[in-house]
């Protein structure tokens, strides 16, 4: 499935709207953001669903319908994040905190993103909580 990338922190990002149709392309894109402050991005699928992801040393993921209709499902971490280096993710210049039970290693976020790119569905590798 083709997904499009949107940077929710930097509207001027030249990658906004880029079509991603390959796993390697998606991983390279996500890995390219590790030098930035943590921020939110969206992957919008051509099936009408989107995956919002927090990108940083750690991350988070929310799966929802692109029209904004509920349910909004957030991926649960195996264990609540206990690190001291997490404050939240930037969106439009605003730091948005996310409860630690939703914070997980960024490698897991990449797996969730790959599953979404391949299927348009939420990953069965994590539990999801409706918010």
Structure write-up:
The chain has 131 residues and is of the alpha+beta class. It has one domain. 18% of the residues lie in helices and 33% in strands. Strands 1, 2, 3, 4, 5, 6, 9 and 10 form an eight-stranded antiparallel β-sheet that branches. Strands 7-8 form a two-stranded antiparallel ribbon. α1 packs antiparallel against α2.
Instruction: Report the biggest beta sheet as strand number plus sense, adding barrel if it closes.
Output: 8 strands, antiparallel
* Number of separate domains: 1
Secondary structure: number of strands = 10
- Measured between the Cα atoms of the first and last residue, the distance is 26 Å
The fraction of residues in strands falls at: 25-35%
Helix content: 10-25%
Q: What is the ordering of alpha helices and beta strands?
A: EEHEEEEEEEHE
- Gyration radius (Cα, Å) is 13 Å
As residue ranges, the low-confidence spans are: none
The dominant shape is: globular
Total count of helical runs of at least 4 residues = 2
Whole-number mean pLDDT: 94
By secondary-structure content and strand pairing, the structural class works out as alpha+beta
